Structures are given as structure tokens and as C-alpha cells.
Amino acid sequence: MLEKIDSIEQFDDVIKKESKFFLLKHSLTCPISHAAYKEYEKFANENQTVPTYFLAVQDSRPLSNEVAEKFQIKHESPQTILFSNGEPLWNASHWKITSRSLTSAFGENQ
User: Fold this and answer.
1) Strands (E), 12-108
2) Which of 39, 80, 99, 100 is surrounded by the fewest CB atoms within 10 Å?
3) Whole-angstrom Cα distance, residue 101 to residue 33?
């Protein structure tokens, strides 16, 4: 399940609905972000029970900024954050976003 979110309200709904999920901050114009998105997509397809969301930074700048400010995680793009019970547990950016690193992060943070 790979679902795009665009607004702070949608993100707030996800925080309330999901006890544990990944969020990817994705740039539509960056080749590194494209590679990270492909890895994220692979992880989502292989782990369909894990909720996976993404935002396009160019389309959702207010949401991207809100996540960075609210959770004190320096904005990077691409960037993946694992949330559990409304709090960030793990994050990675750029080439560190791989299907393997996502699988490992999810398993280590049960």
C-alpha cells in the first residue's frame, strides 16, 4: 500500500489512524529521490501490511515543513521517516533509503 498525502490534515489523520507507518519525502525532480522512491516502492510491494505514505515536496511544501518543524527532523529530500505511536523512531535520507534498510528499520523497531 503506497499512498500519497498532500496536506497537514491528511497527515494528522494518518498519525491518528496508524500505530506504525513510513513516510517518504520525495522530490519530483531529483534523480537520487527517484532511486529512493523505487526502493520505497519495492519495500511497499514486498511488505503490503506495512502502511507506506509519501509526499511530493514540490506539491506539499507546507506538509513537508510541518513534519520537519513538529518532529525536529532536519528536512532532506529524499527522506524516509518511520513513525510509531505518533513519534518518529528512525529516519534515513538519500542513498541510505533502500528496501533492505527499510525492512531492517521496521524489524528493529517493533
Assistant:
1) 20-26, 52-56, 79-84, 87-93
2) 100
3) 15
Contact, 11 vs 63, CB < 8 A? yes
Q: Give me the residue spans of the domains in the chain.
A: 2-105
Q: How many CB atoms lie within 10 A of CB 66?
A: 15
Query: Pairing relation of β-strands 52-56 and 20-26?
Result: parallel
CATH superfamily of this structure's domain 2-105: Glutaredoxin (3.40.30.10)
Q: Which residue is associated with the grid cell 500505530? A: 19
Q: What is the pLDDT of residues 51-100, one digit of tens each?
A: 999 999 999 999 999 999 999 999 999 999 999 999 999 999 999 999 99
pTM for this prediction: 0.95
